[in-house]
Automatic annotation (TrEMBL):
Name assigned to this protein: Aminotransferase class V-fold PLP-dependent enzyme
InterPro entries named among the record's database cross-references: Aminotrans_V_dom (IPR000192), Aminotrans_V_PyrdxlP_BS (IPR020578), PyrdxlP-dep_Trfase (IPR015424), PyrdxlP-dep_Trfase_major (IPR015421), PyrdxlP-dep_Trfase_small (IPR015422)
Cofactor(s) needed: pyridoxal 5'-phosphate
All residue ranges annotated as the Aminotransferase class V domain in the record: 21-382
Keyword Transferase in annotation: yes
Keywords: Aminotransferase, Pyridoxal phosphate, Transferase
PROSITE patterns reported for this sequence: AA_TRANSFER_CLASS_5
Parts forming coiled coils: none
GO molecular function terms noted in the UniProt entry: transaminase activity
PANTHER family in alphabetical order: BLR4730 PROTEIN (PTHR43586:SF24), CYSTEINE DESULFURASE (PTHR43586)
Lineage: Bacteria, Pseudomonadati, Pseudomonadota, Alphaproteobacteria, Rhodobacterales
Pfam families recorded: Aminotran_5
Family, as annotated: Belongs to the class-V pyridoxal-phosphate-dependent aminotransferase family.
Length: 393
């Protein structure tokens, strides 16, 4: 489907103010998302928080159905969370990992996940092993296959890393983990909303993502998918009386669905916004979204290469809508601030967010831009012109 960019831009209030090219940070929300959030907040103000949740129950229950559709999952396999990290931690810390258990991760692993591995290495004695990259800079599936000749307790990787356009071969990893019967936790935080995602095709057991990035949802939202066969076998690391009703003085009973990872209290207005964002993306179609966003990112890459002293830092044979780069003589942080004064929003990626990859490739803090489908060729042109005009040191 061809996207009607003019209409989509008109439905995006932020585009009247900024040239926003950082969907991998926190994308611009479309008006229906804003309306869903403010509508619920206004209802809470008018009739009370509990009462608003009751009135909106059908809509709020529908958020699980929408997220499930987005992932090719069942609603019972979805837990709604306050961010991707909380979702990821719920999955990771529920796993009974013990001394000597091997956890295999990728070179471009995200900092929040890696420090959790380090904590469990310190606390539980797990052994962290890093799957090497292939010659393109993506996770090497052949190396993973060899590493799984010895038993492993978990394969846990990031699909699209925080620091660039790399798309790790998540489905090929799933094929291998299924063959070896090893649990597979996939951080899809930066993939969801910019490309089609299907948990059955991916073969993952757990998948986590956020609302605020390419999905265009509000900040403070995220979700966890857990494969249904695993739900009943999984005891969350922390529970409350929603996850596990207190059924007798000496007993609780875990919920039968993925919501055993949730708490009783929630930001219902943000959940309504997340649901609206997912529905908006599904209406447009994830194929159309990725065609457009990835096309704009490729245009940006081509234009950047025309700038003297510019270097692209995206690894892998296939690149998504995230573009990482440096320009000789431009300090990244300073550049972001200067561009913001011109109404152009991009960001930086610092080595501590993907330390293994950054140290391996000798990457300092770099610039990061991520166009979404609502951006235009002109938006890209304005960014490139602005970069060219900045004084170099
Ligand atoms: C790859 C990756 N995973 C996880 C996260 C964490 O997402 P959240 O901030 O919603 O917890 C991020 C955020 O930048 C990320 O880039």
């Amino acid at each position: 489907m061809n996207l009607d960019i003019t209409t989509l831009r008109n439905q995006t209030p932020g585009l009247g103010t900024v040239n926003h090219l950082l969907a991998s940070g926190s994308a611009l929300m479309p008006q229906p998302v804003v309306d869903a959030i403010t509508g619920h907040i206004e209802l809470e103000a008018r009739i009370g928080g509990y009462e608003a949740a009751a009135v909106q129950q059908q809509l709020l229950d529908g958020v699980y159905t929408s997220v499930a559709r987005l992932l090719g999952a069942a609603p019972q396999e979805i837990a709604l969370m306050e961010n991707a990290t909380a979702a990821w931690c719920q999955a990771f810390y529920s796993l009974p990992l013990n001394k000597g258990d091997r956890v295999l991760t990728c070179q471009a692993e995200y900092a929040a996940n890696y420090v959790a591995y380090l904590q469990r290495a310190k606390r539980d004695g797990i052994v962290i092993e890093v799957i090497p990259n292939d010659e393109t800079g993506a996770l090497d599936v052949n190396a993973l296959e060899s590493m799984l000749e010895k038993p492993a307790a978990l394969v846990s990787i990031t699909w699209v890393p925080t620091n660039g356009g790399l798309v790790n071969p998540a489905a090929a990893v799933g094929e291998i983990t299924r063959k070896h019967n090893v649990p597979y936790l996939l951080d899809a935080c930066q993939a969801v909303g910019q490309m089609p995602v299907d948990v059955r095709e991916l073969g993952c057991d757990y998948l986590t993502a956020t609302g605020r990035k390419f999905l265009r949802g509000p900040r403070g939202t995220g979700f966890l998918y857990i494969r249904k066969e695993l739900i009943e076998k999984t005891e969350p690391a922390m529970i409350d009386h929603f996850a596990a009703p207190w059924v007798a003085k000496d007993r609780y009973q875990l919920r039968p669905d993925a919501r055993r990872f949730e708490n009783w209290e929630n930001a219902y207005a943000l959940r309504a916004g997340l649901g609206a964002a997912v529905d908006y993306a599904l209406d447009l179609g994830l194929e159309s979204i990725s065609d457009r966003a990835w096309g704009l990112a490729n245009l940006l890459r081509a234009e950047l290469l025309q700038i003297k002293g510019a270097t692209l830092c995206d690894a892998g044979a296939q690149n998504c809508a995230i573009v990482s780069f440096s320009i000789d003589g431009l300090d990244p942080q300073d550049t972001v601030v200067k561009l913001r004064t011109k109404g152009i929003c991009i960001g930086t990626s610092d080595p501590a967010s993907t330390r293994l990859d950054a140290e391996d490739r000798g990457l300092p803090t770099i610039l990061r831009a991520a166009p979404h489908y609502y951006n235009t060729e002109e938006d890209i042109g304005h960014l490139v012109d602005a970069l060219k005009s900045l004084p170099r040191s």
